[in-house]
Every structure is written in C-alpha cells, then in structure tokens.
C-alpha cells in the first residue's frame, strides 16, 4: 500500500478512546422540537460538534432530509462548512448525501470545497434513497421517474469518483470538465467515499468496490446483521481499504435516571409515528408524548421502535452499546440521540463519554 492509500485508510479507520470497544461517533439529524427554531437547532449542532471534539468522539456526520419540519439538515454541505469553521480536529461528513438527488459534478464541487476548507477532516457518505417522500423527491429531481435514479446509482458513483480524481479518459464527454476545488489546481487530497444503506444493495456494492460501509441500524435494525454479513462476504481489497470497515448508526440516549430517558425517547417515537402516518411535524415535547393516546397499532409500532433505542442510565447505555457492537461486529458506532430538546441530546453525549472514561 502506497503512502496516499495508507493516508486514506487512516482517515477511514477511527480511533478508540477510553474503555469503548470501538470508536464512537455522532450522527446529527439537526432535529427541531416544538417551540424551537431551525436557528436554535443549528446552534445546537455547533455545540454538539464542539462537545464531540472535546470529549473524544471520532467523527460528526449530518444527514440529508427534505420536507420534514422536525429536521433542519436539508443542505449537508452548508452545515458542514459551518461546523468546520467552529471545530479544529474532529472529522466531519455526510451521513449521507443522497446522490440521485444531485448531479455528481455538484457534489464533487461541494466536497472539494469542504476539503479545501478543512483539509483531511471531511468524509463523503453517499446514499441512494431520496431522503424524503416521493412527491418531494420528484420536485428535487424535476422528474417522477424515481426508480431510474436509484438504479443508476453505480454509474453516478463512478462519475462522481472521476470528477473527484479528475481522471476522465481522453475522448470522454467530460474529459475537459474539472471539479474545482480539485486536482486540476495542483496536488489535492479528496474526502474518502463511504456508501450508506439500510438494505443489501449498498452493502454489496461497497464490498465489491472495497469501500467503507455505514448501515442505518437506527431505523432498519432487522437488516443490520444480514447487510453487514453481505458486505464482508462481498468485500474485495482496494486502494483505500485492505479489509472491511463498517459503521452502524445507533439510536441511543442516556439520562441521569431511567424514567427521564424513557420520557425523552418517547417524544422521538411519537415523531416517527406521525412521520410514518403522513403527519410529519416538529419533534413533540416529552409532556406531549406522555399525554398522547396511541392507538393499538401505533402502540405496537412504538414498542418495537423503542426496543431498538439504547436508552437509560449511562451505565445501561454503555452496556447496551457494548452488546450491540459484540452482536454485529461493527467497527464503529455512530450515535444519534432521539430527544425533543438540544440540552437533553448534549447531556446524553456527555454522559456516554463519561461512562466510557473519555477525556474530560
């Protein structure tokens, strides 16, 4: 492995702190709760990135979502530029950018710019889902042929990679087009590409291409182990990885006592009930969630949803994360906190860091 490849591998593989079994990272959905605003949520994201950097979390990712009142992360590149200006060391990335929503050249330019702003700290995570409902996806893509975008994902990925590397062959229609900032301006690093998924398609593709893989365990827990097994079985060594490297997104929330943790995650569960039944809105308060009368079908969904959220006291959350890592063999855990307010989310990450003996 040459020095460039070794540098890319080092950027992918995380650093373990304290007694954690693997590196811990942050998935920030920039949630907006009832009574709050997008401005306040984005300020919380800055606070969270600073906390994560200070306490020893490895990376901080934001995810692309659209037309969801309770989420303010429709523009990952914009948010990441802001976070880069307020941090110094932590890796920042997309978890992920939904590639079929965009022209590959646009993403190459955005993340080339981010790499220039924060050299050696940017990850480019890519998904093939729209990150929204069908009507909004059609508005984003100015097309109602949504399946074509997902089916063309491998071709879009190849095109994006060539733009990032500035290596279209002679005679290609794009051979004279350059993504800037980028290699055409001189020697330049580029962000590592990650594939994201909640099923087997991206797991297999990531394995075949020798790329790192991130799985959305936090909303597709039943598919986690099959997808990771498929990724590992499909893996072929590449210039960036000589062995598989997998991250799983996991919903986890720690509080000073178990009852308060339950109150906080119940608000996230009610938010998901409303989203899944076509009534998306701001994340409700714990009081609103406690007073809500769930139907029998909604209660069944909530019970299942909550079993996949690691929540409780710091020690209980630590034990739950350890067990999840042992069951899945994940190389890194990326924690997203389901709660109404920013204060509860920030406190949870602090408590988890304490439970693992991270730097104060």
Portion of residues in helices?
Answer: 40-55%
Write down how many β-strands occur, each being a DSSP E stretch of 2 or more residues. 9
Secondary-structure element pattern, one letter each: HEHEHEHEHHHEHEHEHHHEHEH
Summarize model confidence as the mean pLDDT. Answer: 93
Alpha-beta content class: alpha/beta
- Biggest sheet, strands in spatial order? 1-2-3-4-5-6-7-9
Low-confidence stretches: none
Measured between the Cα atoms of the first and last residue, the distance is: 36 Å
What's a concise summary of this model?
This protein has 360 residues and is an alpha/beta fold. It is built from 14 helices and nine strands. An eight-stranded parallel β-barrel has the order 1-2-3-4-5-6-7-9, surrounded by eight helices.
Kindly describe this structure.
This protein is α/β, with parallel strands linked by helices. It is 46% helix and 13% strand. The chain contains 14 helices and nine strands. The protein has an eight-stranded parallel beta barrel, surrounded by eight helices. Helix 4 (104-117) links the parallel strand 3 and strand 4 (122-127). Helix 10 crosses helix 12 (296-307). The longest helix is centred in the last third of the chain and has 19 residues, at 258-276.
Provide keyphrases for this structure.
360 residues; alpha/beta; 13% strand
Summarize the SSE layout with pairings.
Layout: H1 3-12, E1 24-28, H2 38-55, E2 59-62, H3 76-85, E3 91-98, H4 104-117, E4 122-127, H5 134-141, H6 146-151, H7 153-165, E5 193-197, H8 200-209, E6 213-215, H9 224-234, E7 246-254, H10 258-276, H11 286-291, H12 296-307, E8 310-312, H13 314-328, E9 332-336, H14 342-355
Parallel strand pairs: 1-2, 1-9, 2-3, 3-4, 4-5, 5-6, 6-7, 7-8, 7-9
Helix pairs in contact: 2-14, 3-4, 4-7, 8-9, 10-12, 13-14
